[in-house]
């Protein structure tokens, strides 16, 4: 750490809560980029106390650690608190204390922000300090600031995001290799791309937390993780992917947030077909991307790494610089008027569907199936029949219809004697469909 | 304009210089999004005087206009000046006066910022006001703020951008239709995608101004438009595009800014081959995109509309919100330490090349050509010979080599008796080539 006190007016101290994957990246960047950062902030940023759970663990980065949170939280001389320990407790209580003590806070904690973000932001506002969380959504990709600042003169209509790298990696390999999910997931675990317990990723829960944060920002609203309708990718098959491909689509796990005409907000995470011509279709491997549809700006997309030690740390340290500049400028946090907008239940969403039915290859089956769609006000856009006898399948794409109607239609289809099974069903996101 | 003074502590007045393509979009957004903006700023933003050249012209938006700049510049009661008139003079002098009078300034003027940006930023800093110019680079795409703030803890190594919509539209159509440039350009002019005088676009000059601004931001340096080595797209042929395609590349007009190991900065705009697998390769039509390679964050890409009334206005009004918030928060502009980094002459850049030679189909021609490359320290990666007799051509791809050596080699090739002409030469941007 090259110190040259002569060219600095001031030093700000950054305390860390956590020195794991992200925390060690943060410590590395603060140290290795110290000179540039000083030039950009107008003050040097010094690493203060670093709190971990187990002080005896061996560490990659050479910094002194402690297990005493009071050396950071509310501590005299610590200006900015970086929380990279994760989880709701004790992070929630520690950050609340830090904000109340006048410390600015930077966090990468999507769980915490997607559940208790509003209460923490209020505390930050009340105590005239910053609360920044760029790294909590899509890692290295700058999306919080663009949403909050660059688009502040615009109206965001819809946000579609590939928000989870693990699932995008799995779907990419399934698409490119024609493989089923199970072997690809096993391989991803062996390679370290997926956790031993992959539920948070493949179940869509990690993406749901990020979708809630994005929806809150995009629509100046309170949206929490539990407002997000969530389906994971475990039911996606190689057949679904092949069917999609044949018709010009790819399957992605999307987080979708939308403000409707009635000011209700829909937020959902589920696998969906998107046209291969859509910019999100070409996002491969573990990359993330966020596609924004705004009234005036039109379509925007932000692409980059959603996780990893240094990429995530880059976003965290960017936030630290923001907080430091605001502190030096004596700036108060801009307050945003947040409206209580209702959450639209998923049944009320208007969506297009792909359905794959195992049917008996008998005269009249198509007409009985079509009649069932008609009874539920779901209109069919296209249909293919494949195979014969016991192996016959109907592949249907609907027009956009009320989700609740599609679900009722699917239930009614199951009761038809010549429909043996609903082999698959998935939503289609295609703007060409009104 | 729905005014509800009860819920506002304060009103800020925004004066406009210009009410053309961008200015009328700005007036529209300030009016139509007034309520959301008030919620986001914590004060209402009111449109103040609007200055135009010709007060008698009929206007799309219903606002009073004047030709008296003193109603805006330095005027009591005008808090923020939006400059959307374009050109260096009188914009430069007007904005300097506004900043000195304590007004914050928002501009979309790439010409002005890429030539006199440093002097204006200094004036803004000295008078503790904001100077924002998000719309000057890539229209609606948030790139200035992400670069200045989100990446402030990182080190940007290289920026590659599709920075001009007109040329990307032309190259997209040439690529997809196999057409030559002239008819596509004529068509683009008829459709309003290209100006009657297309020089600024097809000559690369518009992109060069944006590349200079990006380089200044990415590397905390002073880079002006004249530092940018610039080649346009007029020499790109259907044959070049077909050759590129055959080898897995597409041709894009790229703005490339790079900081080298010796801290020198290279900035250039020219058509280049990029691999079809590169995220920039799939940017179609008039869209812009900026690809950033950063040490910690890794690869990032920002995509959206680079021009147009409302897209550009979205960026301008986002900046107005930033300036208004800073004003209300009593914030000073963060000062960034800018280093005087040398500009690397284009001859010193290390680049890969595609060359197409018309040759005599004679024994030994390949060995004489290869020897010439060897004499100039340019090593050949791959070579194809096509056609026979008078029609014979050699298509060569070099390894990365010093630009000056390639140029000298090309001159020497012209002197070979069996090389009839250099039919084409273009740089190749491919990271797989060290
Ligand atoms: N990993 C990523 O790529 C990524 C990307 C975006 C966001 N995030 C978010 O960043 C945060 C950190 O993730 P991570 O991957 O860095 O986690 P990690 O590797 O598990 O590190 C957690 C760190 O916090 C410390 N810690 C945990 N609980 C503590 C407690 N109660 N008291 C004191 N110290 C405690 C741990 O101490 P020990 O070292 O002693 O165990 C460890 O140093 C999470 O909110 C995560 O969601 C991560
Ligand atoms: N158009 C785009 O898509 C786009 C995108 C990004 C950035 N920009 C930048 O935005 C700026 C404006 O572009 P534009 O396309 O909106 O230009 P424009 O349509 O030509 O409008 C220019 C406006 O400025 C007024 N004006 C020009 N010179 C003036 C003077 N000396 N005194 C008073 N008023 C004057 C004109 O008045 P009259 O109406 O009376 O002629 C007109 O209203 C330029 O810097 C441009 O580079 C444009």
TrEMBL record, chains A, B:
<feature type="transmembrane region" description="Helical">
    <location>
        <begin position="12"/>
        <end position="30"/>
    </location>
</feature>
<feature type="binding site">
    <location>
        <position position="195"/>
    </location>
    <ligand>
        <name>L-homoserine</name>
    </ligand>
</feature>
<comment type="similarity">
    <text>Belongs to the homoserine dehydrogenase family.</text>
</comment>
<keyword id="KW-0028">Amino-acid biosynthesis</keyword>
<dbReference type="GO" id="GO:0009088">
    <property type="term" value="P:threonine biosynthetic process"/>
</dbReference>
<dbReference type="GO" id="GO:0050661">
    <property type="term" value="F:NADP binding"/>
</dbReference>
<keyword id="KW-1133">Transmembrane helix</keyword>
<comment type="pathway">
    <text>Amino-acid biosynthesis; L-methionine biosynthesis via de novo pathway; L-homoserine from L-aspartate: step 3/3.</text>
</comment>
<keyword id="KW-0486">Methionine biosynthesis</keyword>
<keyword id="KW-0472">Membrane</keyword>
<dbReference type="InterPro" id="IPR016204">
    <property type="entry name" value="HDH"/>
</dbReference>
<feature type="binding site">
    <location>
        <begin position="17"/>
        <end position="24"/>
    </location>
    <ligand>
        <name>NADP(+)</name>
    </ligand>
</feature>
<dbReference type="InterPro" id="IPR019811">
    <property type="entry name" value="HDH_CS"/>
</dbReference>
<feature type="domain" description="ACT">
    <location>
        <begin position="354"/>
        <end position="431"/>
    </location>
</feature>
<dbReference type="InterPro" id="IPR001342">
    <property type="entry name" value="HDH_cat"/>
</dbReference>
<keyword id="KW-0915">Sodium</keyword>
<dbReference type="Pfam" id="PF01842">
    <property type="entry name" value="ACT"/>
</dbReference>
<dbReference type="InterPro" id="IPR045865">
    <property type="entry name" value="ACT-like_dom_sf"/>
</dbReference>
<comment type="pathway">
    <text>Amino-acid biosynthesis; L-threonine biosynthesis; L-threonine from L-aspartate: step 3/5.</text>
</comment>
<keyword id="KW-0560">Oxidoreductase</keyword>
<protein>
    <recommendedName>
        <fullName>Homoserine dehydrogenase</fullName>
        <ecNumber>1.1.1.3</ecNumber>
    </recommendedName>
</protein>
<dbReference type="Pfam" id="PF03447">
    <property type="entry name" value="NAD_binding_3"/>
</dbReference>
<keyword id="KW-0521">NADP</keyword>
<keyword id="KW-0791">Threonine biosynthesis</keyword>
<dbReference type="InterPro" id="IPR002912">
    <property type="entry name" value="ACT_dom"/>
</dbReference>
<feature type="binding site">
    <location>
        <position position="110"/>
    </location>
    <ligand>
        <name>NADPH</name>
    </ligand>
</feature>
<keyword id="KW-0812">Transmembrane</keyword>
<dbReference type="GO" id="GO:0004412">
    <property type="term" value="F:homoserine dehydrogenase activity"/>
</dbReference>
<dbReference type="GO" id="GO:0009086">
    <property type="term" value="P:methionine biosynthetic process"/>
</dbReference>
<comment type="function">
    <text>Catalyzes the conversion of L-aspartate-beta-semialdehyde (L-Asa) to L-homoserine (L-Hse), the third step in the biosynthesis of threonine and methionine from aspartate.</text>
</comment>
<feature type="active site" description="Proton donor">
    <location>
        <position position="210"/>
    </location>
</feature>
<dbReference type="InterPro" id="IPR005106">
    <property type="entry name" value="Asp/hSer_DH_NAD-bd"/>
</dbReference>
<dbReference type="Pfam" id="PF00742">
    <property type="entry name" value="Homoserine_dh"/>
</dbReference>
<dbReference type="InterPro" id="IPR036291">
    <property type="entry name" value="NAD(P)-bd_dom_sf"/>
</dbReference>
């Amino acid at each position: 750490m090259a110190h040259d006190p002569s060219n600095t007016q001031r030093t700000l101290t950054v305390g860390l809560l956590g020195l794991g994957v992200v925390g060690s990246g943060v410590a590395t960047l603060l140290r290795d980029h110290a000179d540039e950062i000083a030039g950009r902030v107008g003050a040097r940023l010094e690493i203060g106390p670093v709190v971990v759970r187990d002080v005896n663990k061996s560490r990659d980065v050479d910094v002194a650690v402690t297990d005493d949170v009071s050396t950071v939280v509310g501590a005299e001389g610590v200006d900015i608190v970086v929380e990279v320990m994760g989880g709701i407790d004790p992070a929630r209580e520690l950050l609340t204390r830090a904000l109340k003590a006048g410390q600015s806070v930077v966090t990468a904690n999507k769980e915490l922000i997607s559940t208790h973000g509003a209460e923490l932001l209020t505390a930050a506002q009340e105590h005239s300090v910053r609360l920044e969380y760029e790294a909590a959504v899509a890692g290295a990709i700058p999306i919080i600031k663009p949403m909050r600042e660059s688009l502040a003169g615009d109206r965001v209509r819809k946000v579609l995001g590939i928000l989870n790298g693990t699932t995008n990696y799995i779907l990419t390999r399934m698409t490119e290799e024609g493989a089923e999910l199970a072997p690809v997931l096993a391989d991803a675990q062996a390679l370290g791309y997926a956790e031993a317990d992959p539920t948070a990723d493949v179940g869509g829960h990690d993406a749901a937390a990020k979708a809630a944060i994005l929806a809150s920002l995009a629509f100046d609203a309170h949206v929490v993780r539990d407002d997000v309708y969530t389906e994971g990718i475990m039911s996606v098959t190689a057949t679904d992917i092949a069917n999609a491909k044949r018709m010009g689509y790819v399957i992605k796990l999307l987080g979708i947030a939308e403000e409707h005409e009635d000011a209700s907000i829909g937020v959902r995470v589920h696998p969906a077909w998107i046209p291969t011509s859509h910019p999100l279709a070409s996002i491969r491997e573990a990359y993330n991307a966020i596609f924004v549809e705004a009234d005036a700006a039109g379509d925007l997309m932000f692409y980059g790494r959603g996780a990893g030690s240094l990429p995530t740390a880059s976003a965290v340290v960017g936030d630290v610089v923001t907080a430091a500049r605001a502190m030096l400028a004596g700036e108060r946090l801009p307050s945003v008027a947040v409206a209580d907008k209702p959450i639209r239940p998923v049944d009320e969403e208007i969506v297009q569907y792909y359905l794959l039915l195992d049917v008996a290859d008998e005269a009249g089956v198509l007409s009985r199936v079509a009649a069932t769609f008609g009874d539920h006000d779901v209109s069919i856009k296209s249909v293919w029949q494949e195979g014969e006898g016991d192996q016959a399948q109907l592949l249907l794409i609907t027009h956009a219809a009320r989700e609740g109607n599609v679900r009722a239609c699917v239930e009614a289809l199951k009761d038809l004697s010549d429909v043996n099974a609903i082999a698959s069903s998935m939503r289609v996101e295609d703007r060409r469909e009104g």
